Amino acid sequence: MRMVNIAPMRRPSSKGFTLLEALIAVLVLSLGLLGVAAMQLKAMQSAHVSYQRSVATLAAQDAVERLWVALGESGGTCPAAGDLNGAGGLDSWSDVWGVYLNGLDDEPVVAVDCEYTVTVAWEDDRFGGENVSSLVYVVRLPGEVAP
Fold this sequence. Notes:
The protein has a domain at 50-140. It is 44% helix and 12% strand. The protein is built from three helices and three strands; from the N terminus they run αααβββ. A three-stranded antiparallel sheet has the order 1-2-3. The longest helix is centred in the N-terminal third of the chain and has 55 residues, at 19-73. InterPro entries: N_methyl_site, Pilus_4_PilV. This is Type IV pilus modification protein PilV. Pfam families: N_methyl.
């Protein structure tokens, strides 16, 4: 009987990554990390806009509560917007809420009969062309229009 010597099959040698493969992997990783950083920045901007809109909503609610007080003090006659925007009405309003909203408008209330439009507008130039710095709040009081 004759023995046949079978040589083991040779595997191609793998000695690790080449320099080109390593550079491509670093490039893909850096692009992924840049994407994560951009998402983080957008999330922080959105959180800031949310904060500002929450404060603007509270400021608008404050103006509406002042309208209700003025309605009660006048005996059921709807107050004029000029009376509210001037001294005795919302004169301290921008001092209180302007701390939280930069460049807050001093005269936020416009009245037509007993329907009031409270516009809370502030300055925020961090978002380029996007207009994210205003909130309009409309309320109707159940009073009578002044003669």
